[in-house]
C-alpha cells in the first residue's frame, strides 16, 4: 500500500489560509517565533498548515521549518497570483510545472537569468505526481486550470511595463507572485516534492491593485478548494 503523505501547506495571507483552517480538524498548534503551525487532518489527510507571511524570506524560512521540525513529506503552496500569460483571467488556476525568480540577475557571472549563484538550476521543477493528482482532483470542477511556469519576486506587479519586463526574460511565464520559487528552492535543497497552486486575483496591469483588493478573498478560496478536493480524493483512496 502506498504510504500516506504528510503535507506541509503554506499560505502567505489570512485570506488564502482561511478556508483551509475552517476545514482542518486541529490536533496541535505550535508557535515558532510568532508563526503559528496548525497540525491536523483535512479529509483524513495529515497536514501541517501555516501562514508564512509575504515574501521570499518568510516563505523560505517557513518551508524549512516544515521539513526539519514537522517532518512533512511534501510542500504545497496555495494562494493568489497575478496572471500574465496569454488567456488567463481572474479566477483561473495555475499549477506550477516550474518556478523561478524573476528578480534575480547574476548573469554577469555566467549564470542564467533568474539563477542564484551556486544553485545548480535556474528553475525548480514541481513534482510530476503532485501535478497529476491536482489535475485529477480538478476534473469535477468548472475551473480553468493551466500548468506552467510561475515566477516569483519581492514585488507586487501592477503595470504592463513590469509585466513585459518579466515576459522578456520568461516568455512562458503564466503568473507572478511573491513566494513560490523560494519554497521550490527549499524543497529542491531538501530533496522534497513540492507544488505551487495559484488562483488569479489580477492580471498584473495598471488596475492590479484594485483587482487584487476585490478578488483576493475569492482567489484564496479557489486555490484552497483545489487542495481540499485533492485531500478528499486522497482520503477516499486510503
TrEMBL record:
**Domain (Nucleoside phosphorylase) ranges:** 6-230
Q: Does the keyword Cell inner membrane apply?
A: no
An example GO biological process term is:
L-methionine salvage from methylthioadenosine
Which GO-annotated molecular functions does the record name? adenosylhomocysteine nucleosidase activity; methylthioadenosine nucleosidase activity
Keyword set for this entry? Amino-acid biosynthesis, Glycosidase, Hydrolase, Methionine biosynthesis
Biochemical pathway: Amino-acid biosynthesis; L-methionine biosynthesis via salvage pathway; S-methyl-5-thio-alpha-D-ribose 1-phosphate from S-methyl-5'-thioadenosine (hydrolase route): step 1/2
* Protein's recorded name: adenosylhomocysteine nucleosidase
Tell me the organism's taxonomic lineage.
Answer: Bacteria, Bacillati, Bacillota, Bacilli, Lactobacillales
Amino acid at each position: 500500500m502506498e504510504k500516506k503523505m504528510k503535507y506541509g501547506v503554506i499560505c502567505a495571507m489570512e485570506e488564502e489560509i482561511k478556508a483551509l483552517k475552517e476545514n482542518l480538524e486541529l490536533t496541535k498548534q505550535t508557535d515558532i517565533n510568532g508563526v503559528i503551525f496548525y497540525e491536523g487532518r483535512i479529509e483524513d489527510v495529515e497536514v501541517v498548515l501555516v501562514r508564512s507571511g509575504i515574501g521570499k524570506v518568510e516563505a523560505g524560512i517557513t518551508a524549512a521549518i516544515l521539513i526539519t521540525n514537522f517532518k512533512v513529506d511534501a510542500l504545497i503552496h496555495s494562494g493568489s497570483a497575478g496572471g500574465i500569460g496569454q488567456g488567463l483571467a481572474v479566477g483561473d488556476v495555475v499549477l506550477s510545472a516550474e518556478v523561478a525568480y524573476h528578480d534575480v540577475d547574476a548573469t554577469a557571472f555566467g549564470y542564467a537569468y533568474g539563477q542564484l549563484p551556486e544553485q545548480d538550476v535556474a528553475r525548480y521543477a514541481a513534482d510530476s505526481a503532485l501535478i497529476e493528482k491536482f489535475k485529477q482532483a480538478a476534473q469535477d470542477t468548472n475551473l480553468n486550470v493551466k500548468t506552467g511556469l510561475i515566477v516569483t519576486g519581492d514585488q507586487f506587479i501592477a503595470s504592463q511595463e513590469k509585466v513585459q519586463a518579466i515576459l522578456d526574460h520568461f516568455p512562458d511565464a503564466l503568473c507572478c507572485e511573491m513566494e513560490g520559487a523560494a519554497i521550490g528552492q527549499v524543497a529542491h535543497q531538501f530533496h522534497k516534492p513540492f507544488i505551487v497552486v495559484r488562483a488569479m486575483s489580477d492580471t498584473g496591469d495598471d488596475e492590479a491593485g484594485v483587482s487584487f483588493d476585490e478578488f483576493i478573498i475569492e482567489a484564496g478560496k479557489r486555490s484552497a478548494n483545489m487542495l481540499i478536493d485533492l485531500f478528499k480524493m486522497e482520503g477516499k483512496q486510503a
